[in-house]
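For this section, I looked closely at a protein sequence along with its fold in token form, which I now present.
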Amino acid sequence: MSKKTEENPKKQELFVDYFTSGETEGNAAASARKAGYSNKNDARAMGYYLKKRLSDEIMARNRERLSSIVPKALSKLEAIVLEKNLNRSIQLAACNSVLDKSGFNAITKIEDVTEKMTPEERSQRIYYLIDKLGFNDLYEENNDKGQKH
């Protein structure tokens, strides 16, 4: 690799562009070829070199891309969480994703306290949770069909 080739800012910028988006995304050799680094062997070596040398620029570009799609992703997650006709497990996964990305860690330890409750206390707790989580409509719908809980 010549010093002139290594320090070509236009080619380096093109490499970052091609490496972070489009059909050569994530492929250092193909991105180097597309950016103008000539033969296959030279492009492979240059791609490896540029990927290491320009890692800060690549990370900044990826962060920029992510920041532009975060609002759309949040809107989609919000729609999933609020959709009444969607499978509850999908909604729960969306909720967990939102909470996780917001810095609220998932519960890793669950203690079963139901054994310490009387049957009446368990029933009261269940009704409270059904109401609190907004599942009254689901509970009532299933209850109207004669299903037991």
In short: Residues 55-82 form the longest helix (28 residues). The CA atoms of residues 102 and 121 lie 33 Å apart. The helical segments are 3-6, 9-20, 28-35, 40-53, 55-82, 88-101, 119-132, 136-144. The chain has a mean pLDDT of 81.
